[in-house]
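seq:
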Amino acid sequence: MTINHHGLLPFKGLEHLCTHNPFRPGRFSRLFANLPPLYVNPLILHEVGKVGGKMEDKGAPNLTNNVPAGLIFFGQFIDHDITLDDSSSLTATNDPVGTENVRTPTLDLDCVYGEGPGSHPYLYDGASKLLTGSDYANPSDPNDLRNHDLPRSAKGTAIIGDPRNDENRIISQLQLGFLRFHNRVVDVVAAKPNAPTGGELFQEARRIVTWHYQWIVVNDFLRTICGNWIVDDILANGRKVYRPECLGIHEAFIPIEFATAAYRFGHTMIPQKFSVKPGGPQHEVFGTILGTGFKPVTSLDEVVEWAALLDSGNGQFERAGEVDTKLAKVLLDLPFMPPSVPAFERSLAVRNLLRAQSFLIPSGEQIAGAMIASGADEITDQMISTVREAGDKLGLLKATPFWLYILAEGKAIGRMDEGAQGQKKFTKGEGLGPVGARFVAEVIIGLLEHDSRSFLGTNRNWSPADEADKIGANGVTTLYQLLTA
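struct:
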């Protein structure tokens, strides 16, 4: 029997992959350059994604059974850690290799740490700790709201590694949680005998925090969204689709199919209303409490208690919306867009569809077929036909845009998990279907495996149990534990 190195399976069914790729570091690139791009009349896309159109969630929101709403915002946090396209256009055909990714394609928390205390000293309190709003608060006033906020300038601008992490209150509070967790780790490590100091203390704390974050991405976020079966198969049998080495690329990159389509699944899972305190009132996602981004905390009502949005162990938390082709009405007419912008450009759904088309993304059916050819045998032709029927219902009679395919697949096929006697079990709406789950999980796991600094690239035997004495309590294995440590 041939033993293959993890992630380096024999070349099989890779005809869809580009054999000559002019990749440049720091750019996006294609996984499916040899597949034909999908073109849909943009007026049809405007119609599909408009207010009152087929994508509007007009009834009571369909919520998942077990997906915490907080994990969807964590997905946004992850996105901000690995991608930032600030140069492409909806009104021109874009080349991914010519489009710079301003973030590093590694899960290294550069959105938290910037380039470190030497290059970005304004993020730090000395050589090892990160600044939080508490550093600006009045020490004699325990009710000073800055104790619950990010560090800010005199004009209220958040002083953080990525300004996007202040664009809504949930993501802002997530950023604050990571700042606090780092500082807690610094305190615990510094208290140990023969502890490092100064820059060495900072680097050790950063490693501990980053590896816990990466563990949580794989074992909390991906397992919840993509299902245990897919995650376990990738870790046991290697990646079959995201294999940069087969493209002649020997470093991690963000596939444009991921950035413009696959990883935008969270838009359908954002609940329209939710509470940020256990048993507290529900607030609109873009309302005055949660949706006013880029501003200081003005009320304790805006301070997130994570037991409301994440599973603390009692099962009492706000649920995310189901994966389906429906979006909340507010997302189809974004309230922060100026009225002068055409209606179709104020729709997040239409913007997603137009952006993918501007990058010449293949249809979901084409990508699904290519993934089968690459060895993803959990995907079947019957599944593709089932999802194609959902595309028909949306008025897309020949092929389905990849983003919509992934949403429709989540509803029509469902998240795949391990059932009785090792049989596959599908739960509709609870997460990503086989195509979406494998694509998303392979890219994120692949980014970790190509990063020599990550726990999967450095020490594959590491687990949070190795650091329990440095973190305190029983270690940190979930997002809830990290944010409340």
